[in-house]
Write a structure and sequence with these properties.
Two copies of one chain form a homodimer.
Chain A lengths: L10 H4 L9 H24 L2 H8 L3 H8 L2 H12 L12 H17 L1 H13 L4 H16 L2 H9 L9 H17 L7 H16 L8
Pfam family, one (chains A, B): TetR_N
GO molecular function, one term (chains A, B): DNA-binding transcription factor activity
Protein name (chains A, B): TetR/AcrR family transcriptional regulator
Amino acid sequence: MSSTPSPQVPPSSSAPGTVRPGGRTARTRAAVRDAVLAGLVEYGYPGLTVEYVAEQSGVHKTTLYRRWGGVEGLVADALDLAGEDTWTPPDTGTLRGDLRALAQQVVDTFGDPAAGAAPAAFIAAAFQSERAAEALRAFYAERFARCAPLVERAAARGEVPAGTDPGSLARAVSAPLFFRLFITREPLDDTVAGQAADAALAAARAGVFASPA
Amino acid sequence: MSSTPSPQVPPSSSAPGTVRPGGRTARTRAAVRDAVLAGLVEYGYPGLTVEYVAEQSGVHKTTLYRRWGGVEGLVADALDLAGEDTWTPPDTGTLRGDLRALAQQVVDTFGDPAAGAAPAAFIAAAFQSERAAEALRAFYAERFARCAPLVERAAARGEVPAGTDPGSLARAVSAPLFFRLFITREPLDDTVAGQAADAALAAARAGVFASPA
């Protein structure tokens, strides 16, 4: 995703098009991101310090303050960078298969402590930092927008009404799973994932996510 | 709800049946709960201290440590106490009306800073305290169990298949709203609430929440 511009993150490091892959700027940013993730996972947002990020990344504290402004800017940029991946939604041939695969990805991510720790830490940080919350909002908005082709394919196959909103459908699949993970603190399993996908599918078929004609 | 028994919370204060309403024990517990909520809302879990709760509640620090063990026990008991209310699910005469009223309650609660601050603080605390997470899990499990009559009435009216699980349906209404509030950090409004209710209704009608016959 394109990063949220901010005074603390100059375009040279935050706009993907202007960073040479593998260049010094990109390497620095990735090293800093790794240090931020490690710190968030280990200490949480309240315990994360610029000193820790400097020590872990090998980037001088003065540089961190100058380019990222402080802990809030570091966390927001790490999240921006997380959104610059090449993830695309599943394409299994049926909407039901695609939605079940989407739900399974959430279950698999959070079922793996190594994979789930960073997203959980970002979600926790957003409770304490408005900039982290903004970065999270941008991350998810962009992520759900990537699901448009999935819904277009389904509409073309006649599986959902034309005009079904991809973002609403994608959110509907994820919501019950994140709700259990971070609100009701209940376990996830494949049955829960399947039910989340089927519930979203039933709602989509019924036209709940279609804009009024 | 009945409180989670724990060494730090003796039955005399945590089991509702054994506390005389208005008695000294109940008054102390409520004063402590109010102080915990105020501290959570103002400073968040990382900033909450037994000293603060003592000062705000007028209950001696030694008593707080003896009866609640520390900050974790205080937060868990405040949440237990929050579950001891008399909330019952809406009864509007139709399942659609009931589900829309449920969703609207969430929107209204979190649209009111005074009402929404404490639940949000508990949800945040659960990221940092396993005991808070357990108390939250118990709180929601009991809350959703209270929705059984709502679903029984709907099944009796033929609005959903017999065997529809009340907990799954109630979770389905709430999940998209909490997802926006605390994960994707997107605003809630009446349209979003209506869509959450209608999506849960469509899924329930399609039998997604019915146990396999």
